[in-house]
What we know:
Elements: E1 18-26, E2 32-39, E3 45-60, E4 66-71, E5 92-97, E6 101-109, E7 113-124, E8 138-144, E9 150-151, E10 155-158, E11 162-166, E12 169-180, E13 191-193, H1 195-199, H2 206-211, E14 234-241, E15 244-258, E16 262-266, E17 272-277, E18 282-289, E19 293-303, E20 309-320, E21 330-334, E22 339-343, E23 347-350, E24 354-359, E25 362-372, E26 384-386, H3 388-428
Parallel strand pairs: 10-13, 23-26
Antiparallel strand pairs: 1-2, 2-3, 3-4, 3-12, 5-6, 6-7, 7-8, 7-9, 10-12, 11-12, 14-15, 15-16, 15-25, 17-18, 18-19, 19-20, 20-21, 20-22, 23-25, 24-25
The structure holds 2-acetamido-2-deoxy-beta-D-glucopyranose (9 copies).
Amino acid sequence: MATRSPWPRPLSLPCCCLLLLALGGPGFFQSHAVEVNVKDLSNNTCIYAEWMMSFLIKYETNSSEYKNATLKPSTNVTHDGSTCGNNTHAPLLAIQFGAGHSWSINFTKTNETYQGNIISFTYNTNDAVFKDAKTKGPITIVVKDPMHPVQLNTVYKCHHLDSIEVANVSLFFWNVTLQAFVQNGTVSKNDSTCEADKSTVAPTTVANLTTAPITTASSPLPTTTSKPVEKPLIGNYSLKDGDKICLLATMGLQLNVSQEKPVLININPKTTNVTGSCGNTSAILRLNDSNKRFIDFTFAVKNTSANTQRFYLKEVNITLISSINGSEPLNAGNNNLSIWDTFLGSSYMCQKEQTVLVTEDLQIHTFDLRIQPFKVQDNKYSKAQECSLDDDTILIPIIVGAALAGLIVIIVIAYIIGRRKTYAGYQTL
Ligand SMILES: *[C@@H]1O[C@H](CO)[C@@H](O)[C@H](O)[C@H]1NC(C)=O
Ligand SMILES: *[C@@H]1O[C@H](CO)[C@@H](O)[C@H](O)[C@H]1NC(C)=O
Ligand SMILES: *[C@@H]1O[C@H](CO)[C@@H](O)[C@H](O)[C@H]1NC(C)=O
Ligand SMILES: *[C@@H]1O[C@H](CO)[C@@H](O)[C@H](O)[C@H]1NC(C)=O
Ligand SMILES: *[C@@H]1O[C@H](CO)[C@@H](O)[C@H](O)[C@H]1NC(C)=O
Ligand SMILES: *[C@@H]1O[C@H](CO)[C@@H](O)[C@H](O)[C@H]1NC(C)=O
Ligand SMILES: *[C@@H]1O[C@H](CO)[C@@H](O)[C@H](O)[C@H]1NC(C)=O
Ligand SMILES: *[C@@H]1O[C@H](CO)[C@@H](O)[C@H](O)[C@H]1NC(C)=O
Ligand SMILES: *[C@@H]1O[C@H](CO)[C@@H](O)[C@H](O)[C@H]1NC(C)=O
């Protein structure tokens, strides 16, 4: 399922435009905010936009492998071709950046709303970041903007990370401020906040930090690696099909990312968005945390020899855009998993910490896991099948029980022996 994204349709405004473009300050991993103010011939603003954007692109190398490259508009950004539109042409926001890359979106409107229509992105594999690319030259992808309509005369705002995936490209947007069809050249004072920003705690926790006692101020800072990180918070995640829950997941998630050195990252369920899809034989749970981290779990159903059906976790994909400390963004996956395996119609539970190996350099630790990706009845988990790891916890009572039983036997034997001795004593007397 596509997630929402930043863009808004056209109407009659004077033609050709003059456009001003400025680059904002550095954001995470050296991204720059792009600010564009599209004006008509009378110097009235018709589109105003400021946003952050990056692209993750998979390409084939000359040795027939696949690699990922990252592009972001930073320097040499131009804005040719942006226009306010007219009766026959939609308003268009277009930018060009780097070594021959370009991106654009046009807008449509109704009486009450506006929204993005078509996004077009062209990347040029002659750029040095694709130096070992098999084929050289520009490649264009075109995709419908999945953004929901926004009320006219309001500014669309969304801090939350949004992504669009198409062909070999993932487009990421965040910190978006946008108004198309600006009236009378004045950007509106009224905002339309995206659902993602409404449903989660503000991504910047500055407010929390300032109100917290000073003693706790050190803990939220990204301290260095070796310190053991506390257990992650447990999150309840669910997906709906209509008004019924079709997927349930409860877990605490921690990533262990080894770039230069291993770093543990806890996923905060309070700032994590849930999307995905349900199905009869395949289901996807996508968690999108406010720190630009995506974790996709893909579940599948299999038939066993005993003619029963089981489900299992088949695939995990992780994208970290602003992984840690401005390190390189990362995309990793494992599509050959066969874990969290249990009968279809039940839920899988594992309270102990478990490790999912995504790649050599990336692991997921799960805590208090319970999952049911299929056949959820009455919005509740079905009976749980516990993982074998949890069986250890059953061992402890067994050992204690056995020890107690042994103790009782010893006491009884000691008592009997004691009685015998006493009898013997009396007899001798
Ligand atoms: C619009 O602004 C530009 C630069 O600020 C100026 O050169 C131009 O004359 C203005 N045009 C109108 C119609 O005011
Ligand atoms: C590139 O990204 C894709 C998904 O977008 C992923 O499956 C693949 O493992 C990545 N490859 C590398 C070399 O990181
Ligand atoms: C937006 O651009 C696309 C591709 O150039 C075009 O097909 C579409 O009709 C445009 N949208 C509008 C509303 O004009
Ligand atoms: C692939 O391209 C790189 C960079 O241009 C070059 O160094 C390398 O020799 C090429 N390899 C093959 C197998 O052509
Ligand atoms: C903007 O907000 C003001 C004050 O709340 C309100 O009167 C006005 O109708 C709003 N405009 C729009 C376009 O929502
Ligand atoms: C734009 O100007 C017209 C005419 O002055 C006025 O009727 C209208 O309310 C204005 N619209 C906004 C959004 O300010
Ligand atoms: C982040 O970078 C700073 C400065 O380079 C360093 O002191 C700190 O240890 C790094 N943090 C992590 C989690 O790597
Ligand atoms: C998750 O849901 C269960 C069952 O409704 C509830 O007992 C538990 O407290 C919830 N946990 C969190 C962290 O909200
Ligand atoms: C994190 O991963 C590294 C490298 O695989 C490993 O050495 C380290 O023990 C892991 N840390 C934890 C807490 O699992």
